[in-house]
């Protein structure tokens, strides 16, 4: 594996020399470059392949937001991380569509090393260079036109409350993913434990959401229904159901709060890769959908044939770049190939795999192509195979209840 290169950009010489000292032990595994301003950083980018850029926000001349936006356009494969101080609140809003992650300044050495290691490990997992570029160039995913319009309306309404805003955002996969990214990062010093998109909206607050949506346009509109053969609304219903079932199964078997939260969020975002491929590789994705509908293969097999990887791989890569917790990222990546997952025990990855299966069992009409099967061997190894009938029954009851309400 090639040695990765990480570029730090900061106009304060003291910070750069502190970073150099802090990173010395990692020099065997990685190359580090340092630049004191935006133009110098772009010179480094032009001269060699840089895998991760970590930039300060406030710099004379070109600020961090402009630098990262330029890098996003010219070097889309690079992972972009923004260092933000408390005083940067206003200006940091402009960076939410260009930075993958936010780190609080001054950087905590342990956290910084962890973020760099995770980011570079993700790049190694994603073998396809073309898709790597596509995924890392993404600032946000497109939202359903009617949900987007509804959100604008609620935010412009003087009587609109935070609860109204949360109710709209919770109805959209792209918006939910974005607010979860923001609360899970050091954006505004939040760095909280995630629970749900609604809770994320509450943490961000009405003013921030307004500034993000109406001011910097963080969410984008799909304009028209993106595809005649792939229904994005159905994808959202399936994602909501999978999240609810994942939470149900996790709560039945465990009292571990982290495990329950991770299972829920991973359930919600597990198929985000489908939305990504549909919006960015439209023609090829429709070809995969058609192949699954017209032949007797699953959508997953069709994706493999056309892209060489699946929606789980690209979705996991995106959510990993956005800095969501490891178990969430891994559950998304491995939900269709549990046997490749290094930890076969009962955990969010296994739960999302089962919840996804149950969701299609209960709503077969939502599935394109052949339904995914349950990996009984892995479930058996985890000592959970005999539980699946009970889970299916309880999830069915849950769905009936939510249908009644
Ligand atoms: Fe899936
Ligand atoms: Fe799914």
User: In total, how many domains does the architecture comprise?
Assistant: 3
Radius of gyration: 21 Å
Helix content: 55-70%
Q: Please describe the biggest sheet, giving its number of strands, its sense, and whether it closes into a barrel.
A: 5 strands, parallel
Catalogue the ligands: fe (ii) ion
Q: Could you give the order of strands across the largest sheet?
A: 2-1-3-4-5
Low-confidence stretches: none
In quaternary terms, these chains amount to single chain
Give the CATH H-level superfamily of the largest domain: Hypothetical protein af1432
Order of helices and strands: EHEHEHEHEHHEHHHHHEHHHHHHHHHH
Which structural class do the helices and strands define? alpha/beta
Task: Give the beta-strand count.
Answer: 7
Description:
With 405 residues, the protein is α/β, with parallel strands linked by helices. The chain has three domains: 122 residues, Response regulator (Rossmann fold, 3-Layer(aba) Sandwich), CATH 3.40.50.2300; 77 residues, no CATH class; 173 residues, Hypothetical protein af1432 (Orthogonal Bundle). 58% of the residues lie in helices and 8% in strands. It is built from 21 helices and seven strands. The strands form two sheets. A five-stranded parallel β-sheet has the order 2-1-3-4-5, with helices on both faces. It has a two-stranded parallel sheet with strand order 6-7. Strand 3, helix 3 and strand 4 form a beta-alpha-beta unit. Helix 14 crosses helix 15. The radius of gyration is 21 Å and the shape is globular. The N and C termini lie far apart (54 Å). 45% of the residues are buried. It binds fe (ii) ion (FE2) (2 copies). One fe (ii) ion binds next to helix 17.
């Amino acid at each position: 594996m090639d040695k990765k290169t990480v570029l730090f950009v900061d106009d304060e010489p003291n910070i750069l020399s502190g970073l150099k000292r802090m990173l010395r032990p990692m020099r065997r595994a990685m190359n580090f470059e340092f630049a004191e301003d935006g133009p110098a950083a772009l010179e480094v980018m032009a001269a060699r392949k840089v895998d991760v850029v970590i930039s300060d926000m406030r710099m004379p001349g070109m600020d961090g937001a402009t630098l990262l936006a330029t890098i996003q356009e010219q070097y889309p494969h690079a992972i972009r991380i923004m260092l933000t101080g408390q005083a940067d609140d206003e200006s940091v809003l402009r960076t939410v569509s260009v930075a993958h992650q936010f780190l609080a300044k001054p950087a905590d050495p342990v956290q910084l090393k962890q973020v760099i290691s995770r980011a570079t490990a993700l790049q190694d997992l994603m073998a396809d260079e073309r898709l790597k570029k596509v995924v890392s160039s993404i600032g946000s995913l497109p939202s359903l036109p009617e949900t987007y319009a509804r959100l604008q309306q609620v935010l412009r309404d003087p009587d609109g409350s935070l609860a109204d805003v949360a109710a709209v955002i919770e109805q959209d996969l792209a918006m939910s993913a974005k607010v979860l990214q923001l609360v899970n990062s050091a954006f505004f010093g939040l760095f909280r434990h995630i629970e749900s998109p609604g809770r994320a909206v509450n943490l961000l607050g009405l003013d921030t959401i307004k500034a993000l949506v109406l001011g910097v346009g963080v969410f984008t509109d799909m304009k028209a229904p993106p595809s005649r053969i792939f229904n994005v609304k159905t994808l959202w219903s399936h994602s909501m159901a999978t999240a609810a079932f994942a939470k149900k199964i996790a709560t039945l078997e465990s009292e571990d709060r982290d495990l329950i939260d991770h299972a829920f969020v991973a359930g919600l975002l597990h198929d985000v890769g489908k939305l990504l491929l549909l919006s960015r590789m439209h023609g090829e994705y429709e070809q995969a959908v058609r192949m699954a509908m017209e032949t007797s293969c699953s959508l997953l097999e069709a994706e493999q044939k056309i892209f060489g990887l699946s929606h789980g791989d690209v979705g996991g890569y995106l959510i990993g770049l956005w800095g969501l917790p490891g178990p969430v990222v891994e559950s998304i990546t491995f939900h269709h190939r549990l046997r490749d997952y290094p930890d076969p025990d009962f955990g969010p990855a296994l739960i999302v795999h089962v919840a996804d299966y149950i969701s299609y069992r209960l709503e077969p009409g939502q599935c394109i192509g052949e339904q995914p099967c349950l990996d009984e061997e892995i479930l058996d190894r985890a000592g959970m195979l005999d539980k699946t009938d009970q889970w299916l029954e309880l999830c069915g009851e849950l769905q009936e209840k939510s249908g009644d309400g």
